[in-house]
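In the present case, backbone shapes were mapped to integers, as reproduced here:
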Amino acid sequence: MSAIILESSLVHYEALGRGKPLLFLHDWLGSWRYWVPTMVDMSSSYRAYALDFWGFGDSDKIATRYSVGGYVAQLELFMDQMGIGKVPVIGHGLGGIVGVNFALAHPDRVEQLLTVNMPLLGSDIARSLSGFSGGENPAKSILGRRLKSYEEVDMEAAKTDGKAVAQSVQSVKDLDLIDLFYEMDLPTLLVYGREDPIIQTPEESILEDLDYNVYSFIFNNSQHYPMLEETSKFNRLLRDFLINQDNWDAIEVKDEWKRRMR
């Protein structure tokens, strides 16, 4: 296990491979671990990093930092200490929201942004998360019931501080990322699993009206974890996105992918 101290608090992270840095940010359910299959695939060309937000996985549990703002600050500290300058960011759910807000606050430090099952509006978050009060870990009532269960998620989900979920969800209850995309000028790809019971896939009209630099793909047969449910397809999409950031038409579109663009 790798760890660093940020503002007197332990932050757990893992890194695989060599080359250009690549940063993965996790969701409300689980931690860094479910990114492993993708990190392994990317490690042949990139130095792939994944960290645990405060309150998740093996990072310290610090309730005063359980918010999107707190995680944006954590990400800045992490990059500073690891010597990471400008980097592509891949964020899932909560991690996507953190990635967007970090890119807005530090546009010189995010090269590309790919989000997975990220709510564009606070109302897109299912009540199983938005109505969570911070008691029992929500993963126990969601994983294996409303969501398919995966070992990479199950192994780490029990480590989550329920307050980290409740407070960070509360911090985005009035979320509206749609307008924020017009403030960013970087290649952005929004990925969704159409069958996700946790995060509602945006309407086609909303996706089509996003700015020129924002595109989207929908995995019609995936739920909340396309990176685990359709791993090879997800990894190919990510790799194509990273390579062809200035040439969208070069991204190969498979029949299994739903591409929406203006």
Q: What stands out?
A: The radius of gyration is 17 Å.
